[in-house]
Amino acid sequence: MAGSRTPARRLAVQALYQWQLAGQDIADIVTQFCDERQPSEAQREYFSELLHGVLTHLDELDDLLSPLLERPIDQVDPVERAILRVGAFELAHRPEVPYRVVINEGIELAKRFGAEQGHRFINSVLDRLARDLRAVERKASGGAT
User: Which of 43, 50, 58, 67 could staple 12 via S-S, CB 3.0–4.6 A?
Assistant: First the structure.
């Protein structure tokens, strides 16, 4: 499953971006993305889990992220907002995914899709969120608290 998570995250960020901008029905977006990109079964499962997880927990995730932002979440660049929401979902609801993986994947997605220095913003926010949500894991792995 681990090897299928990177492409699934990429699809989830792109789908969330589309949903944020177009307001299209999420089921239609999932169908469109799966038909066009034909992900493997494992990728499709994790993509769907991320997408539905973010949308199910959207208010909670935004509440976790908001204190870490210098502006309201709806004013954050849509690409960066999608990346932060996926990262926040994994940090809060996927404890089997190491926090360092979540942060690194967010950075890589920001480098690929975001603004020129967007990866620094993503790194900063997800790192601070991991301090709150994954304090025990960070301490156990030698990460700063």
Answer: 50
